[in-house]
Task: inverse folding
């Protein structure tokens, strides 16, 4: 049972870390996807010219499948970014007085919750 407790603790720590660094993770994943798309496009160009100049019989259909996977990954990335921005919008719109900067909540307040009637918690 000690190992299960360690795995659970590690998983919970990873989840908390990813919540705190969500914007940075989105940027990092986006950069990774862009490098992958660049690699796919470069290999597509090499294959296209190899077909034309050297009759290499490179399957160009596989590149379209790779680009389709990249589009699916970018869609997921944009969904994560929209979720993060929506959370910031709700927090700044409904959880702070008009014209004032939103306050960062203490850890005890967020864990216990508050029923003060000021908005969405």
Result:
């Amino acid at each position: 049972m000690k190992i299960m407790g360690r795995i659970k603790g590690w998983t919970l720590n990873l989840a908390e870390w990813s919540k705190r660094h969500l914007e940075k993770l989105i940027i990092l994943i986006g950069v990774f996807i862009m490098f992958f798309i660049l690699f796919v496009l470069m290999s597509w160009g090499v294959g296209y010219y190899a077909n034309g100049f050297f009759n290499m019989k490179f399957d160009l259909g596989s590149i379209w499948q790779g680009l389709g996977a990249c589009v699916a990954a970018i869609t997921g990335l944009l969904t994560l970014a929209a979720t993060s921005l929506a959370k910031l919008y709700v927090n700044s719109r409904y959880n702070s007085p008009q014209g004032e900067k939103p306050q960062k909540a203490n850890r005890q307040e967020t864990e216990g919750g508050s029923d003060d009637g000021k908005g969405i918690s």
Remarks:
- The mean pLDDT is 77.
- Helices lie at 2-20, 22-54, 61-94, 107-112.
- The longest helix spans residues 61-94.
